[in-house]
Design brief:
Layout (H helix, E strand, L loop, with lengths): L1 H20 L9 E6 L5 H16 L3 E6 L4 H13 L4 E4 L8 H9 L3 E5 L11 E5 L1 H16 L8 E5 L7 H19 L3 E2 L7 H4 L6 H16 L7 E3 L3 H13 L11 E2 L6 H8 L5 E4 L2 H16 L21 E4 L2 E4 L3 H6 L11
Parallel strand pairs: 1-2, 1-3, 3-4, 4-5, 5-11, 6-7, 6-8, 8-9
Antiparallel strand pairs: 10-12
Helix pairs in contact: 2-11, 3-4, 5-6, 8-9
Bound molecules: beta-D-glucopyranose.
Beta-D-glucopyranose binds next to loops.
Length: 357
Amino acid sequence: MKRKLSLLLVLTLLIGMLTLTGCGGPGGKNLIGVAMPTQSLQRWNQDGENMKKELEAKGYQVDLQFANNDVNLQIQQLENMISKGCKVLVIASIDGSSLTDVLKKAAEQKIKVIAYDRLIMQTENVDYYATFDNFKVGVLQGTYIEEALGLKEGKGPYNIELFAGSPDDNNAYFFNGGAMSILQPYIDNGQLVVLSGQTEFEKIAIPAWTSATAQARMDNLITAYYSGGAKLDAVLSPNDSLAIGIVASLDSNGYGTADKPYPVLTGQDCDKPNVKAMIEGKQSMSVFKDTRTLAKQVVTMVDAILQGKEVPVNDTETYNNGVKNVPSYLCEPVFADKNNYKELLIDSGYYKMEDIQ
Ligand code: BGC
């Protein structure tokens, strides 16, 4: 009896110690901070949820925050995460260049930092980057336009207008670079014509990726260049939030008829309203970046960091943040349109059919 009691005591003590030292499971009681830019765009909600689910399944505790696209709020949230004792910070930044000071504090506490989807710029205190191949996203968009218009076969000239993403988001330059790597030769040889003449990044960029700003710019372009009968054949949109603004503008300007068909229009993210727009023929394609894949990859990286194992990366050349090359893991983006969305989005369990009807 005495023996049994002391065994019990030892066991109880052991369990108590394990709990205190945070070794309760593979993730222990380790707290991970996940900072997402905003809840206003569907994808970031999914990213956040997926990260939380995957991390918790491995036994981690998660502090998940959304910052309403407000840079100062994101900095405050990161400061809180640091003082709460987070072991790793996973950050999808709002402005990639504004986190230098707060990340210095993280480094002082030996907290590792993973840039999530968007690279964090101008600091040495970012350890890893996990994203999709952002250049390839643009190549998929450019290639779609090339094929839809038959540019390789020499067809044209066609009128196109160009949009780019937010200038404070490093990804925006990669999307644009990828798309223009396909489209620029056709602009140079005259098969594609940008009637507005607006081709420079600064002129075509939409700050904060705002739908309403994209809509307003499209309205202005239509009024200034396409109201006298010129046909708008294609619009390069780098993502779905811009595409939805562009569709709203096209609709309010009478597009979608036999005389004025919708132009070829690209996008990215496969947001629900955009999948609907693809089914309705208002948006031609999107790029599917399965946020479940990215979340899983980041969790593997977090796990490796905290277990002192080698962190898996597959690119150490492409992403320089102004201070250093950040070791990166690039996931594969895939092309989506109305012909393959069922297989990609429904059969894979990403969405339910009723989500997009
Ligand atoms: C992401 C895109 C997203 C955009 C706007 C980019 O950094 O890679 O998926 O559409 O931000 O939130």
